[in-house]
Amino acid sequence: MTPLSRRAAGVRVVLPVLLAGLLCLLPAGCGAEEAFPEGSTMARIRDRGVLVVGIKFDQPMFGYKDPATGRVTGFDAEMARLVARDLTGSERNIRFVETVSRQRENFISQQIVDLVIATYSITPARARLVTFTDPYYYAGQDLLVRAADTRIHDVSDLDGKTVCTAIGSTSVERLRTEVSGARLEIVDGYSVCVPALLSGRVDALSTDDTILLGLQAQHPDALRVVGKPFGREPYGIGVRKDDLVFRDYLNGLIARWLADGEWDRAYRDTIGVSGATSESSKPAVR
């Protein structure tokens, strides 16, 4: 082979590598090969190169921001990273925005976030304000009490007790229906309820069981989950009202994750570390 032909062969080898590298510098260059409809939410996010997600920061196992590292972990965070990977080519192209329960609809309608995935129960009232995907998770409402408190065995024991829960959650209405004699302390987030429970200022905290498992894991010797669920909550991803193209795209992703094992991997790496099993939480494969 002459020097000239060796140089030409080298160029043929190196050029594809260089082109691949340049493509990866583009927002949608690595992995995001799907052609999204022009003007769609997916195309806008792909072109921007970053998915903006509303999520809780105080719910271990679903959405929790580590104060030391700043990393957001949990099942909802894992689902969001899978969306970012599909849209932009990398799960790192994501920005999390803390979104407490009462802010979820406003953050979506004001386009502060592209979507909300924040232990967001699908209800008729909320569906009038935002559009939900199909359920990606099912939870049950339960109680968290002090480990040494033997007075509370199920929801019927809350009569005359003080129960802490979060404003804007479905837990409030269910408690009012199930036990009208309970005194409700309604706060912005569950992180406010935990110190109140530990200090004895409230008797119980009520919300979805998997949220309670995460809170219990932070205080394993002081708190316990009662383990008597009294309601079933389907969680969905919330997007702008009537953005049906984005909803259908997300529904396709959820169906794929349920079938290809990504859902199971995310559960195992987050909620599963508590010892919980996914039988009652995983939607049917569609």
Describe the structure.
With 286 residues, this protein is α/β, with parallel strands linked by helices. It is built from 10 helices and 14 strands. The longest helix has 23 residues. The N and C termini lie far apart (58 Å).
Query: Globular, elongated, flat, extended or rod-shaped: what is the shape?
Result: globular
What pattern of helices and strands is seen along the backbone? HHEEEEHEHEHEEEHEHEHEEEHH
Q: What is the mean predicted local confidence, pLDDT?
A: 88
Cα distance spanning the termini? 58 Å
The biggest beta sheet reads: 6 strands, mixed
The count of DSSP E runs of length 2 or more, i.e. the number of strands, is: 14
Q: In what range is the share of β-strand residues?
A: 15-25%
Structural class category: alpha/beta
Kindly state the percentage of residues in helix: 25-40%
From the alpha carbons, calculate the radius of gyration and give it in angstroms.
Answer: 23 Å
Low-confidence stretches: 1-6, 8-32
* Tally of individual helices: 10
What are its keywords?
alpha/beta, six-stranded mixed β-sheet, globular, disordered N terminus
Short overview:
The chain is of the alpha/beta class. The protein has helices spanning 3-25, 41-48, 75-88, 104-109, 124-127, 170-178, 190-199, 209-218, 244-260, 262-269; strands at residues 51-55, 58-59, 63-65, 72-73, 94-98, 115-116, 131-132, 137-146, 162-166, 183-187, 204-208, 223-225, 232-235, 238-239. Mean pLDDT is 88; it is low at 1-6 and 8-32.
List the helices and strands and how they pair.
Elements: H1 3-25, H2 41-48, E1 51-55, E2 58-59, E3 63-65, E4 72-73, H3 75-88, E5 94-98, H4 104-109, E6 115-116, H5 124-127, E7 131-132, E8 137-146, E9 162-166, H6 170-178, E10 183-187, H7 190-199, E11 204-208, H8 209-218, E12 223-225, E13 232-235, E14 238-239, H9 244-260, H10 262-269
Parallel strand pairs: 1-5, 1-6, 9-10, 9-11
Antiparallel strand pairs: 2-3, 3-4, 7-14, 8-11, 8-12, 8-13
